[in-house]
Amino acid sequence: MEVLGLDFRYDNGYKVFNNINIKVERGKFAAIVGPSGVGKSTLLRLFGAFLKPESGTVLLHGKPVLRPTPLISMVHQSIVTFPWMTAEENVMLSLKTKNIPKDECKELASKALEMVGLQGFENLYPKEMSGGMRQRVSVARSLAAEPKVLLMDEPFAHLDELTAEGLRQDIYNILFNPESPLECVIMVSHNLTEVVELSDTVFVLNNSPATVVGQIDIEMPRPRNSRDPVFDNYLDTLYRLLTKKKGGTR
């Protein structure tokens, strides 16, 4: 998936992006980082065609993405589960537009819950689950529709650190398991440690209007050790790019 020459401005005329070019290869977990307010979440919505660019193109399999499509799914930072529905029923929501029999929907939902480690919890309601379990249900709902691209907007932001750490340790294998139809994942995060822990490639946004000021390929075997000096080197590189401004450094 890629975006070419993307420009975008808000309705008030403020220009957010200038000539954004990003390509995420098949089988890769990509992250987008940048200072607060630079437009990271807005860019993610442009990837999914939930917003329309001023100019430029969003491409999937070489074809323009002109409107939201089941081929691109999104997990939000707020954990969205409907309290009156079980885990299974929450997941089945993503299959309503597919016009498939209810028994098949239940089978696909059960398979998606198993993928995220929630086999046996199909009949629990959100109030009976931890925050980490509810976010796994959100991921399962996105995966059940068999998208090719998964967009993740600060997916661990509302979890306590221990829960977030546990889910981060599992999420890569969940998303890229042999049964997953996913081709790539694009995550927005402000947490540089989780970015280095999870990503194959990191795109750094900075300046106003925002541009891509760096692309870092994380070449470390998994699982990654945050105490490894190489891990720290990647963190330092990202921090330098995030704090650098046009015309110098601050």
Please, could you describe this protein's structure?
This protein is α/β, with parallel strands linked by helices and 250 residues long. It has two domains: 1-71 and 147-165 and 182-250, P-loop containing nucleotide triphosphate hydrolases (Rossmann fold); 78-146, no CATH class. It is built from seven helices and twelve strands. It has helices at 40-47, 87-92, 102-115, 131-144, 161-175, 192-198, 229-243, and strands at 2-9, 15-23, 28-33, 55-60, 63-64, 72-75, 149-153, 184-188, 201-206, 211-217, 244-245, 248-249. The chain has a six-stranded mixed beta sheet with strand order 6-7-8-3-9-10, with helices on both faces. Strands 2-1-4-5 form a four-stranded antiparallel beta sheet, covered by helices on one side. A two-stranded antiparallel ribbon has the order 11-12. α4 (131-144) runs parallel beside α5 (161-175). The longest helix is centred in the C-terminal third of the chain and has 15 residues, at 161-175. The chain starts with a strand and ends with a strand. The mean pLDDT is 91.
Number of helices: 7
Give the low-confidence spans.
none
Strand content: 15-25%
The CATH H-level superfamily of the largest domain is P-loop containing nucleotide triphosphate hydrolases
Count structural domains: 2
CATH topology of the largest domain: Rossmann fold
Straight-line distance between termini:
34 Å
**Top-tier CATH class of the largest domain:** Alpha Beta
Shape annotation: globular
Number of strands: 12
Structural class: alpha/beta
Radius of gyration: 18 Å
Helix and strand string, N-terminal first?
EEEHEEEHHHEHEHEEHEE
What's the CATH architecture of the largest domain? 3-Layer(aba) Sandwich
Largest sheet: 6 strands, mixed
Query: How are the strands of the largest sheet arranged?
Result: 6-7-8-3-9-10
Mean pLDDT, to the nearest integer, reads: 91
- Regarding quaternary structure, what we see is single chain
| Helix-residue proportion | 25-40%
